[in-house]
Task: structure prediction
Amino acid sequence: MPTDPITHPAVLFDLLGNRRRLLVVEYLALFDRDACVEVRHLARVVRGIELGEPPRQISSDDYESAYNGLIQTHLPKLAAHDALEYDDARKTVTPTSRVEQYTLLAQVARYLR
Result:
């Protein structure tokens, strides 16, 4: 298991210093822990936030860029640090209890800037 970001600030910064991963964590914190969120939905929401547009208005190219980035990089990294459970076969994520801790730490970091 990787170093615990909660106790190692440099690891936490690496994990949540990426805006897309931070958006995923903050969005998943809105769900119950047993909620199952499809990656395609998550990609539209994240890209919509990045572009300042409603998720339904996201173009196919923008959607695919976000989707590919999530499945190839961001979701596996967040899963490795127990922020979420990622089912690569079903392309779904489920928030864990740690997602709330990550969200709180991100809010504290914003406050301290």
User: Anything to note?
Assistant: Residues 18 and 60 are 23 Å apart (CA to CA).
